[in-house]
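Give me the fold.
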Amino acid sequence: MEPHSPNRPPLLNPALPVEKAREAIADLVKELLEEAQKQTPLNFELTPLDQSINRILGSDLLSPIDVPAADNSAMDGYAFDGACLKDDGDLARLQIVGTAFAGKPFDKVVSSGQCVKIMTGALMPAGCDTVIPQELIIESSNNLATIEFEKKLLKAGDNRRLRGEDLQKGKAAVSAGRILRPSDLGLAASLGIKELPLRPQLKVAILSSGDELRPLGEPLSTGTIYDSNRYSLIGLLNRLNFKIIDCGIVRDDPASLKKAFCDAAKQADVLISSGGVSVGEADYTKQIMQELGDVGFWKIAMRPGRPMAFGTLKPVDGQANKKRTLFFGLPGNPVAVMVTFYQFVQSALLALNGASQTEPTLMQAIAEAPIRKKAGRTEFQRAILGRNKDGRPTVRLTGSQGAGILRSMSEANCFVILNHEQGNVAAGEWVDVALFEGLL
C-alpha cells in the first residue's frame, strides 16, 4: 500500500534514506499542527512548579521583576566610588566605614575616599559603583581601618552587577516550547513564580501485535515469547511525560486489529504499534490500515529498523476531538523498536506537543576498534562512550548488534551513528555519537 497523499513518499525500492523519512514525518506533523490550530483553541494547563519537570512550556514565561532587583556586588571585596581611580598616583587609599552583607545592606552614604567592606550579592551602598576584590588588596599598616591597592588593576564600574542586567522585568525568562529542565524550574522559583502554563500532555496509545506474544506472568509454550516492546515504549514515553494508553497485546486477526486501532484512535493523539509491518506479513494488516487511514508501509535504508509504517488514522465514529491520529507502525524486533522510536517517533511526538527543541545533540568520539559498515544505509550501533588517557572521548560497541539483542541497548549509553554513504570505520577514526542521557 502507498500513502494516498502526494506529499508522502511511496513504498520505494531501493529503501528510503533516513533523512527523507524524517522530512516526510516532519511535514505531516506540521500539517497536523495546522489542522489542530484551526479546529480547537489551545488551552494551557496551569501546573505547580514541582510537577512541571519535562513538560512543555505553553507560553513565554515573563519575568515579573528585574534580575538582579538592584545593583549589587559580584564578589567579596570593598565597594567605593570609582571616580577616585582618575586621580594621579599608583595606589588608592580608602577609609573603611562599614560592612554590607547579602540581605543586610549598608544604609549610609559613602563619601569620596571611603569604602565599605562588601560580600557577594550585597546591595551596592549609596555613593559606590565599583568593587575591588579582596585578593587585590595591599594592606596598610593600619589595616583595620584603611585599604590600599594598585589603581591600574581596576577601572570604574568593575565587579558591579547592574539592576536588570540578567533579566529585565517583562522580558521572557524562558521561551514557549521549552522542555522544562531542573534549571528552568529553579529560574522560575527565583522569580517568585509558583505555577507554569504548560501544553496539555500528548495522549499516546501503544499496542503490540502478534500471535506469538504472551503477557508477563503467563507460562511460555513452544514458539512463544514475552512481550517486551510495550515496556520499552512505556519507559520511553514516561521519560517524555506523555499520557500513555496501554492497549495491550492484539492477536493477528482482522477483527481484533481493526477494533484495537479504532479504540485507540478514539482516545489518543498518537498510536504506536510494534510488529506486523515486515515484508510477508498477512495482507489483512495492510488492508485494515488502508481502510482506516492514510498509511504507507516503508522500507527505510537503516539498520536496525528497516520496515516501518507511518501516516494517520482518520477520525472514527465517537472520536471526541474529530482529529486525525498520528500513527507509527514499528518493527517487532526489540532493538529495532527502540532505535526507530529514538530516530523518528520521539522528535515527531515532541513537535506535535509544541516543543521547540526536538532533535538530540550529537558529538564525536574516537572509535576504539574497527566497525564494519555497508554503504547505502544509515546504521545505529549501540555503544559505550568513555575517555582515553588523554581525556579525549572514545566509543566502543557493546558487542553483537543484532536487532533482537535487547541487552545491547541495556548496556549502551549512546548510539554510534554511521551515515548513509559511510563505509567501514577504522580504529582511531572519529564517528558521530548521540547520547541516551542529557546532562540537564
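DSSP finds seven helices and 26 strands in the chain.
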